[in-house]
Amino acid sequence: MPVLTRLIPSPVVVDIRPGALDDLASVLADQRISQSGRLAVAVSGGSGARLRERLSASLPGADWFEVDGGTIDDAVRLADAVKGGRYDAIVGLGGGKVIDCAKFAAARVGLPMVAVATNLSHDGICSPVSILDNDAGRGSYGVPTPIALLVDLAVIREAPIRFVRSGIGDAVSNISAVADWELAHRVNGEKVDGLAAAMARQAGEAVLRHPGGCGDDAFLTVLAEGLVLSGIAMSIAGHTRPSSGACHEISHALDLLYPGRAASHGEQVGIGAAFATHLRGDHEGSRLMAETLRRHGLPVVAQEIGFGDDEFVRAVEFAPRTRPGRYTILEHLDLSPTRIEEAYAEYAASVGG
Ligand SMILES: [Zn+2]
């Protein structure tokens, strides 16, 4: 008998709407994630204090833990603090660093993790990966997918708009990442998971083609859903391929070559995706991506994030080394620095940079 279906590791709750935060306790109780209310809630030292003030009355059984940063040491410290506390779950309430620390700590102590994202800056809000700084730079650690994800759109609106912009770049970059994955399939026979590719691509296309702007709930809902689907696509595939191709290699290269000068993840991968799409010969697709990015206030050329053309070209050249073994348009073309320079000038002219 053939396998009739497959189980997809995915959260049992996805709650995206204005006011979702006010129902956190009842959602966790209803879904039997935490009936006792014994929760370890991780928050940042800064904006976390305000959230704690607002929520502590509705979460009387919770203990609160401050997360100082986004390093592996911070995550291990959180795990040690939570260990032995007889909690039902760890709640990561905050931005990327808090959620990544909570994911890692939950995996380490064997508890389910609830993600409550207070910004939409990248697709890690519901992914099976925890990104933490370590002694060697930055590491990606495999962890279980969050058991529940809450996004309160009223809270998202309070965060600086650059976080929403970053999420847009990360979601749109899926389109380029999936195209790279398919290229690897055609050239090298790499296996593409059709469902993971479909979810990641649809997430990117929905954000790309949505007529709304950062200020309206309809658009923010599609963006949040897109980031959730990207995370689940990675769970299905078992790796980050559906959401990470040449676009992300270029961004990692910028981070590594020019430490301290990096723009946001989404800004960098957005430019990377539009340029990679150009390199694949899809000039119309590249222009559409650039138009959308620009409409939402994102940069489309390197100069707009403070890098000279030569610095960007150097990053593109270096990019394949950031993900050895990953085959994208960069490894496929294997361009010389001069050819990268020419291609980038052509791209910049094409998108009007
Ligand atoms: Zn990303």
Topology:
Elements: E1 13-17, H1 24-30, E2 39-44, H2 48-55, E3 62-67, H3 72-82, E4 89-94, H4 96-109, E5 113-117, E6 129-134, E7 137-142, E8 148-152, H5 153-158, H6 161-188, H7 194-209, H8 217-237, H9 246-257, H10 265-279, H11 283-295, H12 309-318, H13 329-333, H14 337-350
Parallel strand pairs: 1-8, 2-3, 2-4, 4-5, 5-8
Antiparallel strand pairs: 6-7
The domain count comes to: 2
| Sequence of secondary-structure elements | EHEHEHEHEEEEHHHHHHHHHH
Structural class: alpha/beta
Strands in their spatial order, largest beta sheet: 1-8-5-4-2-3
- The CATH superfamily of the largest domain is identified as Dehydroquinate synthase-like - alpha domain
Number of strands: 8
Average pLDDT level: 95
Which consecutive residue ranges, at least 5 long each, have pLDDT under 50?
Answer: none
Query: What's the main sheet like?
Result: 6 strands, parallel
How does CATH name the architecture of the largest domain?
A: Up-down Bundle
Radius of gyration equals 20 Å
What spatial form do the alpha-carbon principal axes imply?
Answer: globular
Total count of helical runs of at least 4 residues? 14
Bound molecules: zinc ion
Distance between the termini: 56 Å
- Percent helix range: 40-55%
- CATH class annotation of the largest domain: Mainly Alpha
Per the CATH scheme, the topology name of the largest domain is Dehydroquinate synthase-like, alpha domain
Strand content: 5-15%
What does this structure look like?
It holds the Pfam family Fe-ADH_2. This protein is α/β, with parallel strands linked by helices. Helices cover 51% and strands 13% of the residues. A six-stranded parallel sheet has the order 1-8-5-4-2-3, with helices on both faces. The protein has a two-stranded antiparallel sheet with strand order 6-7. Helix 9 crosses helix 12 (309-318). Zinc ion binds at residues 122-123, 170, 243, 248, 265, 269.
